[in-house]
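User: I'm putting together notes for a lab meeting next week and I want to include a structural view of one of the chains we've been expressing. I don't have a solved structure, so I'd like a prediction I can at least talk through. The sequence is below, exactly as it appears in our construct file.
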Amino acid sequence: MNLKKAFSEISNLFDALYNSREKILRLSRNIVRDCSIGIKNIHRKEFSMFQEKKKKIEIDLETLNNLVNKNPAVFSKFLKTPEQEYTELIVFYSIISNKEIPPPSELKISPINFALGLADVIGELRRYALDNIRNSQTNELNIVLESMDEIYTILFSVDYPVGVTQDLRHKVDVARNIIEKTRGDISLAIQMNDLKQCFENDNRSSKL
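Assistant: Thanks for the context. Below is the predicted structure for the 208-residue chain, given as structure tokens.
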């Protein structure tokens, strides 16, 4: 019995899978890192830097998908995290810039990964709201809260088994708590801002 030929084919397959896996993991890490940097650019209103980072991410995502599609049964799981992070980046930017949110088909990503990334946007919007509160900027706070509520309402309406939606239900539960905390923070900030304006108006009136 000679197994050398059979084992040679197996060995070649494993070599090819290993090499592809290493490339996929490297790309995935790069995409996740660049999405994190892109989100920071948005918070800092560095929109030109965001656009540059976005272009690089899109190129890496296309390369990643090409590698995964060669052996989707083995590698499709590696798309989950980078596609979620990319969704979070794009949707967060769309909301802050008052632009239309692109659907997953336009972004060329899995709808379930889009939904999971969409749930994470709520946490990023809370961070954005808190930054505005610290900077005494209350104009956008109600818009941010409305966006959070809209995302939550849409995701909460998804009523399918965990085997289909993966960890979406858990993310939605977390999002609900984030929204309630943010609602309280925003209400207090607006009340304090109104009170501050009243004091300033009274001071101006007393000087006349």
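A couple of points you could mention at the meeting. The chain is about 85% helix and 0% strand. Residues 110-208 form a domain with the Methane Monooxygenase Hydroxylase; Chain G, domain 1 fold (CATH 1.20.58.2140).

User: Perfect, that's what I needed.
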